[in-house]
Amino acid sequence: MTMGKMGNYRVMLQNRNLRPHLPETRWMTDAGTLRMLGAHSSVFIKPDLGSGGNGIIRVRKLSRGYEVRSGPSRKIVGAGSVLRTVRSSRRSNNRYLMQKGLQIARYQGKIFDIRVYMQKPEHKWVIAGMVARVAAPHKFLTNYHQGGHAEPLQKVLLNQFKNNQAKVDACHRKIEQLSMTIAETVSKWSSTRELGIDLALDKNGYIWILEANSHPGHRLFTQLADQTMYSTIIENKRKMAVQYPI
Fold this sequence. Notes:
With 246 residues, this protein is of the alpha+beta class. Helices cover 30% and strands 28% of the residues.
C-alpha cells in the first residue's frame, strides 16, 4: 500500500528527528487557506496524489492582493477573490493540501532543491542517487516535467557555501542522514521499495523536507554527465523486478 503526500507527512511528523525539518502542512480548506495566507508570505497548494509538479499552485502575498500561479498561468487578485481563483486553478478532483512556502536558496539566480532517490533492492534502504534540481528561468517549480534540469549536487552546494568544503560535507552528511531516516520511517507504514525525497535549503542553509513520493521519476539523472547514479537506479529496479515481481 502506498500513501499520498499527507499520509507520508503525518508519518514523518511522528519522528522527533524529522519534525523540525517539516514545513507546516495541512489539508486545504477555505478557512485554512485564509489562515495560512495570513501567517505566511507564500503558500503552496498541492494535489495529495500528484507527481511531476502537476497541479501545484503557489499563492504569494503582494503589497496589495495576491499572486496566484499555476503552470503558465499568473493572476493578480484581491483578497476577496483569492479563494475563488485558487479553486478555479485546481486541475484534479483529488484532495489538496497546503504547505508553508519557503525562502528557497538559488543557484545562478534560479531556485533549486534536492532529489534523493531511495531504493530498497534487498533488505536495506540505499541512496541510489542525489541530484540538485534547478528550476527553469522565472519558474517556481524545479520538477523535470516543469522544465527543471539536473546539476551535480556537489557543484551546487559548493556554490551555495562559497567553496567551503567543510560546510558542503556537513550538509551532504545531513542530507544522507535525513533521507535514510525518512525512508525507514515511511516504510514502516508502506510497502514501497522506492522513494523520491525532495529536500530544500533555505537562504540560511537549513534543510527542509518538501515531500516523499513513492512513485519517483528517474529521468532527471539521465541529464548528468556521470551516468553512475542512473545505472545504479536501473540495476536496482532490475533486481527488484526479479525478487519482488508485482
